[in-house]
Hints:
It contains seven helices and seven strands, in the order H-E-E-H-E-E-H-H-E-H-E-E-H-H. It is an alpha/beta fold. The longest helix has 12 residues, at 125-136. It is 41% helix and 22% strand. The chain is globular and about 45 Å long.
Amino acid sequence: MTTAGEIMHRGAQCIPITETLDRAAQLMREMDVGCLPICDSSGRLAGVITDRDIVVHCVALGREPSRVTAEDLAQGTPVWIDVNADIEEVLQVMENHRIRRLPVIENKRLVGIISEADIARNLSEEQVAAWAERVYAR
């Protein structure tokens, strides 16, 4: 059984809820990633912010990225998966929520993130195609 912990990208870096979106964008550029998990002061996952979120929910609305915080864009309950969850559960969660990046939690702390690239590297072409169809086709 393949688990979330086996396919995830370790070392995902959280951005504090109080950090501004311009700093989030800088971190994304420096790390060459398209999303950052958002964590509260105790290190617990509070959400995920993507480069698209910054553009659509801040810049395109004429808001100033240096004045909008990650917390301002963190809405609802974050979706995550336990490090020991099997790959089928990972795929199901991503499909159900139509998400392309999934934070991985162990002992209530972020330990990694699973992206589309991680899925592609660890599944057969047929499995990736079936998953992509379910996530994107709706």
